[in-house]
Amino acid sequence: MTMTAKTPDSESTLADDIAAFTRDPLGFVRYAYPWGEPGELSHTTGPREWQAGILTAIGDALREGHRTQRAPIRVAVASGHGVGKSALVAWIVEWALATHEHARVIVTANTGGQLQTKTWPEIAKWFNLLICRHWFELAATSLRVPAHKETWRGKRIVVIFDEASTIDDRVWEVTEGALSDEGTEILWIVFGNPTRNSGRFRECFGRFAHLWTARQIDSRTVPGTNKAQIAQWIETYGEDSDFVRVRVRGAFPRSGSLQFIASDLVGQAMRCEVLQNVYAPVVIGVDVARFGDDKSVIYVRRGLDGRTFAPLKFRGLDNMALAGKVAEVWRQTGADALFVDAGGGAGVIDRLRQLNVPVAEIAFGGKADRPRFNDETTQAANKRAEMWAAVRAWLKAGGALPDDPELEAELTQVEYGFNARDELQLERKEDMKARGLASPDIADALALTFAYEVAPRNERAARGGGGLVEHEYDVLGEG
């Protein structure tokens, strides 16, 4: 049966109707949005089953808490990709404010970007469909009742964490300490992909499970998720890979975190002193744009110095023009090696050879030449994983990066897991785009500077020339 929003005869009737849902969030959601009516929700009959289950659980806990005065109510949801958690966040925010005269809702996320580009736009989208939206003022990052602009605090507090797995444990601790107002309805609701198998979000499903109503949602069980994409992920990464566990099954990874390069490691590299080595070879990596919104990037690195030569970024540049830019950089820097992405750069490579610029083409999906790293236990599934592992080791050894927010995001957003052969496997660019992230073009250009070992300049001089060497790889980045 199609559920449609009611059209009350008067404002007072609307107020009475909405007030009746103060401890019934599912009833509010079914009433307050125009399900099945012409427009955005014309083909939608109401919340998905799992969303309705969470709203029911909140309502049941509120009614029980009203009788027993227990607080706070805690709900944790770990889910796969695309199940509709952002919509559920929006509904809870709008229900909480609309059905309680004195309510305060706080929404936070793992990053400002997540909050501004994903969480809040979803709240705004559903606000525009809300039957009582005229009661509120929607601003860039707030939703308020005008009469309570300055002083509105009250007897209902709702705290929502979005992408809770990567919210710092200290934020959890501060929040927990603040949720102790006697006689106040307190709800603490946390959502996220389970990207880490440690930390406070993980403990909602483990050590502190007795305090939380915890649910794990498999994307395959939810109508409307992209089943073709899910099938491709399973084929690419494997059913029991960490990528599929997190992005599809809503299960926590076997490895500590899916984040391949830690944020603090990148931050340190952007603040550290540049260590110069006059004998270190100059190496150029070129990542060629594959799609219209991607960038082509030229990255120059000299040993541990990945900062002095700022990465060059180009959008909408054709192959001939890009090849000209690369040739110019090669001449200006006196580079000792040039590695170009073969996946999108065949035309660039051909043109460089016509210009007599020595170039090595690198296939990201090709076989890893140096498959094992520091502890001799990690094996790379392909060339791209091998190069990124070298970048991570280089950063740990003191590699210096430019203060570039784009590069910082790209290095820290790529996720990893292990395939059926327990080989290190990085998330593909296509899958990052499916998660709403930009292609890591700058980071891939940096990784290309580690495609092969390049001999130090003094060593080549002693041998009488020769750039690439076959001896054991020096992960400290002197090549």
Largest sheet: 5 strands, parallel
* Strand coverage percent: 5-15%
CATH superfamily of the largest domain: P-loop containing nucleotide triphosphate hydrolases
CATH architecture level-2 label of the largest domain: 3-Layer(aba) Sandwich
For the termini, the CA-CA separation is 66 Å
CA-based gyration radius: 26 Å
How many beta strands in the DSSP annotation? Answer: 15
> What is the total domain count?
2
Q: What form results from the Cα inertia axes?
A: elongated
Protein structure class: alpha/beta
Give the CATH class of the largest domain. Answer: Alpha Beta
Mean pLDDT: 86
Q: What would you call the quaternary organization?
A: single chain
What share of residues is helical? 25-40%
Total of helices? 17
What strand line-up does the widest sheet have? 2-5-6-1-7
Q: Uncertain segments of ≥5 residues (pLDDT<50)?
A: 1-5, 148-153, 467-479
- The CATH topology of the largest domain turns out to be Rossmann fold
